[in-house]
Records
---
Amino acid sequence: MKFLVVQHISIEHPGIFCEFMHKGGVSWDTVELDEGENIPALDSYDALLVMGGPMDVFEEDLFPWLKNEKKIIRHWVNDLHKPYLGICLGHQLLAASLDGKVCKMIEPEVGVMDVTLTKAGKVDRLMKGVSNSHSCLQWHGCEITKLPNAAEVLAKSKKCANQAIRVGNNAWGLQYHLEITENTISQWGAIPSYLEGLQITTGQSSLDPLDKAVSYKIDEFHETAHNIYKNFIEIVSDSK
């Protein structure tokens, strides 16, 4: 298998999924859009992974490449019908690339929190073996406010109704993070917009409490991530 990974900032990478892919013999190419790299021809790739980033889906004036990225995501999902997995910004881009809508939240959602599977999520292929309520890292200030057509909500939280979605039978998005590593909090905290979200939500400028909370839960995060990864690999395999 060969995956294409689209990144919007170098420190928001597949994280623990890189370890899973390496162990499973999956190869991948990474495109860094914020550094001016272009998305290559898609023919040789079996799946598309789109990661997070500090920009918002509607900031095309500041990040002109977002327009082309949405076009490519739409082509991948609707025309090629190949497996797609988006995380955080990649989740929102899935909606924005189709006929959904993404808007700013009244207050960012930041911290270690639980998400709950919906009725559809409990029987979804990507969520097989995942606990109905599972912990994750939240760090976002926007959310999907209008779902694309043919979308199903798979998970929700108290602050955000659309924590995980499936569009059709080949595209999934997760608003939350399970891919994080031991260095994630310190690296993301260096991004001004991320630190601002933390301050708005918790009133604290220190990353230490969040880092400790993540460290306490990281094994659980990785167990859930591994379940989702295995399920996604099955989906990709069946699509070939």
---
Amino acid sequence: MLQHYWWLVVSLLGALLVFLLFVQGGQTLLFGTAKTEDEKSLLVNAFGHKWELTFTTLVTFGGAMFASFPLYYSTSFGGAYWLWITILLLFVIQAVSYEFRNKAGNLLGKRSYEFFLFLNGSLGTIFLGIAVGTFFTGGNFVMDKMEITNIAKPVISYWINSWHGLDAAVVPFNILLGIGVFLAARTLGLMYVIGNIDNAELIERSRIKVKITGSAFVVGFVGILIFLSMLTGYSVDRESGFISAVEHKYLLNFLQLKWPVIMLLAGVVLVLSGMTMIFLKRDKNSFYVTGGGVVLAVWSLLIVAAFNNTAFFPSNVDAQYSLTLYNSSSSEFTLKTMAVVSVLIPFVLAYIVYAWREMTKKKISTEELEDPNSIKY
């Protein structure tokens, strides 16, 4: 029960992270959507007040994974380090860009930092999607818990090739998922602009672009679901621990568990409702409606990646090395202790909602940026 509970928590954090990538999606609007320096400043400052939420959620996701499923953390974060270092660098340049873009006499110039923000918003989201894809497609690693007794090399799991995770970037399903995450982030970024920036020209351009990007996201998500339903997954026998390949495993997980299907359908309905609001120009709350749908849809995908006795990180070297909820989790004592502490999560979420509402009560405008007392990026 504790292992499943903590996968629910970790996967929820992953789903919230995908939603919060609207900041990254908004950064891609700096080129092509924003036409003037004032419009670029509006975008940078609108999303600059939220970028810490995305970065903090990414760190929290990693921390929760480390505490609850440490073997996955050491295998993926430690073994596929080129993939994660690439993601980390793409997020580091985001933080640097927000801090230095508007500083007098900055070394690289304003446009360079804007280009860094664009890279973070495009490549950063795609590579995060690729990393999420490995929950289904796995990696080239071996795992032997008895190696912990090897004094010369006490390493339980390690990668067998020199790519160390970058090989995930050429797996078709991972690429499709990465593009899907990018389209979701850009769609939400456009919707956020429509609801939170006071600039008629920028809003109108965003309305036009969100119809194209949002439609591409919906089509792409359908493609992801079709591809996922055809993937072969790996099932673990609870008694023997033997792991075997099962065709259409993730489709079977949806059908056998049933409740993730309800979550997925609810998410799809919310996303389509948000898009309909855009087309009807009743788009005041389209960002939150679509965002809620994205959270439910992604959460359901991550749940079927591990529930129903499924290996959530398959080894492409030997299926018996694959990681499951049962062979990769922390001790019962650790999971119990963390479960007690997790009762504080609703209070933290309530504070985040309160702070969010306070920051977005008033639309950001050029007049506000001209105020000498306002915080500008």
---
Amino acid sequence: MKRNGIFSKLFLILVFVFLYAPILVLVAFSFNASQSSAVWGGFSLQWYAELFQDRYVLEALQTTLLVSILSAAIATVAGTAASIGFANMKRRARTVCMTINNIPLTNADIITGVSMMLLFVLALGALNGLFGGLGLRLRLGFGTLLIAHITFNIPYVILSVMPKLRQLDPNLAEAALDLGATRWTAFRKVVLPELMPGIVNGMLIAFTMSIDDFVISYFTAGSQVSTLSMVVYSMVRRRVSPEINALSTLMFVAVLLLLVVINLRQSRQDARRGRRALRP
């Protein structure tokens, strides 16, 4: 038994090393004075300074963050509403809807990207034909990119919120209505706080998937807009600039701090609920 415990701990350590060693190497080489990705040339902050002077990378970062934040927020609202609708359906209808919801998750990104591109081209062509006389020329760009990200983010939010809805006691909302609360008040003060952990998790997953996406963005962004993943891909064909190491380090630290804040907030809420439950 003791030997099995040692092997289990060793295996866990190897898993964590395999997962986080590349990130630690990236963080270390973001402070490398040399442009080489294999030779340490001394400690330097020059790549961080050049990063904030690179207009092309900063514009791509701005576009990526804007699309990720907007798509995550809109997908969270739409996915939460859809989850509540699914929960109120009959079992057979809910099973059908959840099966349809899972198709984009199992579908290949390239199929989703190409199909969305064809849909947008068809729709924009029809709109240009209708309003062409007004001098209006619609094309692939930020709008189509945002719609595509919202579309593939909604299923992740639904999968995060649905388990919380299954755990929710349906009598809570009915008790609030019996005590004189309106439907909106009962939802806002009784149902929503119970769903909030799932909603936050869904929003974080949607934000992460959106900021990480390349394939769907590549097919739906057009030629006028570039995300950060598209910029990195264009650099890979030549040479990845050390500025990307600096930018990736800043993004990793920001996400890490966000997760720490959310986990601390959640642990405090759980502690408060535990103290309330112990009160006579």
---
Amino acid sequence: REEIVLLVFRSIFPVHALCAALQSTSIVRKFFENQEVDAKHIGVGRIVFPAILLHGTFDSVIMVVNLFIEKYSDSQSLINVIGGCGLILVMLGGVAWYYKQNRDQQQRLHSLSVARRAQSSPVIT
């Protein structure tokens, strides 16, 4: 029964796709935004840390749920509901972080695009 609950939690919540999206915002910032000062400060740790934190928290909630199901098998439904709510909160936190990073990145990329167009267009006097 615990394996089925684990399978359901892992299949409902796309944590791997969200972790890849979290990493992609930092990779684009480092390699494609041409911010020389900022790009030097973005290393591997800054790229993978949000994904590691999200995935680790997600897995920790699942492990705690499984631990409590083994100890308190008489209240599995309540434990599953609490675990599901915990996973929803973790995923919502990851989505909110990604949304903020994505919005900030779109603004930076728009600024770069405007600056490049201004440099390439001839000045008419």
